[in-house]
UniProtKB/TrEMBL annotation:
One of its GO terms (biological process) is protein N-linked glycosylation via asparagine. InterPro entries: Mannan_Polymerase_Subunit (IPR052086), Nucleotide-diphossugar_trans (IPR029044). The keyword Membrane applies. Belongs to the ANP1/MMN9/VAN1 family. Its main location: Golgi. GO terms for molecular function: alpha-1,6-mannosyltransferase activity. Signal peptide: none annotated. Keywords: Golgi apparatus, Membrane, Signal-anchor, Transmembrane, Transmembrane helix. It comes from the Eukaryota. This is Golgi mannosyltransferase complex subunit. PANTHER family: MANNAN POLYMERASE COMPLEXES SUBUNIT MNN9 (PTHR43083:SF6), MANNAN POLYMERASE II (PTHR43083). It comes from Spathaspora passalidarum (strain NRRL Y-27907 / 11-Y1).
Length: 367
């Protein structure tokens, strides 16, 4: 027959193993081109320059690689407890921090929290700016160090790079200027929403919003706040400073976003156009709202509670169900409020009560 005369056919018939080499080369070429281009398509941003990070090759992957195919998970949310005995009941806490700057004091304070670290997951979101690059690098370094010392025992740590915009200048005076508040706070709202919606898990009982510039809290922060069993509970954010008048170290109120609505506030709101907002703590818009920051009593009961209508993001404990029900940080005027203040309003509209602890202090970094 004709094909017996084909010298290649005869060669292969006599030595079939000779096919192995060329086939292996073909398979390698296929894997090289198709598997790597597939990965490139799914990654929104390339972090190639950081390929030496300790996350290894999976760091940009959204999907966990070690789950079997068609993995099915069952979670009965009725069995998830969110109780005042959080630690005894081994309830999981998700600590969320938007981070434009890494402060070692924040990280040290976080590590000193006495709640069981294996029940704590951490989530961070970094702006897509040079400042964000720097903060990410510094946090990664700290994580590496803690890991090397065998001191990193959190359940899970998620680092996110923001895909929405941020303001370029974050200097105190720039970011607190009244006219940039709407833009800045609405960008912060998008960052907070990305953070909570990508990290909350079916086993999360509590979400603790802890700004990355809160440098000092009681080590029992989680136990203390969960013990109140409130849907939303804000600590009072103060700041340590040196008082030149008395020549002594002192403390002063910092966060004015924890407030109770006032007649005047409602009156201002009723006169605003749909897309206008009220931001608390600015003389341009005097609301005369009672501010929790001013209710601190050094001799008062640290556990005394006050009902609030607006909260800040410094240190706020939220029952995960409040977020699961849909409470988020409006990046648009919601009852003329945005971001954390809009979140408090939304939680209330969902039927949850919002509280603060005027005598329970946490401290903001002093720039
Ligand atoms: N992801 C992200 N985090 C930010 C951005 N700007 C500020 N942050 C973080 O968000 C938190 C609150 O912001 P901050 O500027 O401190 O607000 P202030 O305390 O009200 O002045 C802090 O933890 C910041 O590190 C941003 O553009 N993107
Ligand atoms: Mg701050």
């Amino acid at each position: 027959m004709l094909y017996y005369k084909n010298p290649y056919f005869n060669y292969v018939r006599r030595r079939p193993l000779a096919l192995v080499g060329p086939l292996a080369v073909l398979i390698m070429i296929y894997l090289f081109f198709f598997s790597s281009s597939g990965k490139k398509d799914t990654a929104k941003y390339s972090y190639n320059k950081k390929s030496s990070a300790w996350f290894g090759k999976n760091k940009d992957s959204v999907i966990l690689r070690n789950l079997p195919k068609n993995h099915i998970s069952h979670y009965d949310l009725n069995k998830l407890t969110i109780s005042p005995d959080a630690l005894t009941k081994k309830e999981e806490v998700l600590i969320l921090s938007p981070m434009s700057k890494f402060l070692p004091e924040y990280w040290e304070n976080l590590n000193k929290l006495t709640y069981d670290h294996s029940l704590i997951s951490l989530g961070f979101i970094f702006p897509r700016t040079q400042e964000g690059d720097q903060a990410l690098k510094e946090l990664e370094d700290s994580l590496k160090r803690s890991k090397a010392q065998n001191k990193l025992n959190f359940k899970k740590i998620t680092l996110l790079r923001q895909d929405s915009n941020s303001l370029k200048s974050q200097a105190e005076k720039d970011r607190h200027a009244f006219k940039v508040q709407k833009e800045r706070r609405s960008m912060m709202a998008l960052a907070r929403n990305s953070l909570v919606f990508t990290t909350i898990s079916p086993t999360t009982s509590w979400v603790l919003w802890l700004d990355a510039d809160i440098v000092e809290t009681p080590p029992t922060l989680i136990q203390d706040l969960t013990a109140h069993n409130k849907p939303v509970l804000s600590a009072n954010v103060y700041q340590r400073y040196f008082d030149p008048e008395t020549n002594q170290k002192s403390i002063r109120p910092y966060d004015f976003n924890n407030w109770v609505e006032s007649e005047e506030g409602l009156k201002i709101a009723s006169g605003l156009a749909d897309d206008e907002i009220i931001v608390e703590g600015y003389a341009e818009m005097a609301t005369y709202r009672p501010l929790m920051a001013h209710f601190y009593d050094a001799n008062g009961d640290v556990n005394s509670e006050m009902a609030l209508d607006g909260v800040g993001g410094g240190a706020v404990m939220v029952k995960a169900d409040v977020h699961r029900d849909g409470a988020m940080f409006p990046s648009f005027p919601f009852y003329h409020l945005i971001e954390t203040e809009g979140f408090a309003k939304m939680a209330k509209r969902l039927g949850y009560e919002v509280f603060g602890l005027p005598n329970y202090l946490v401290y903001h970094h002093n720039e």
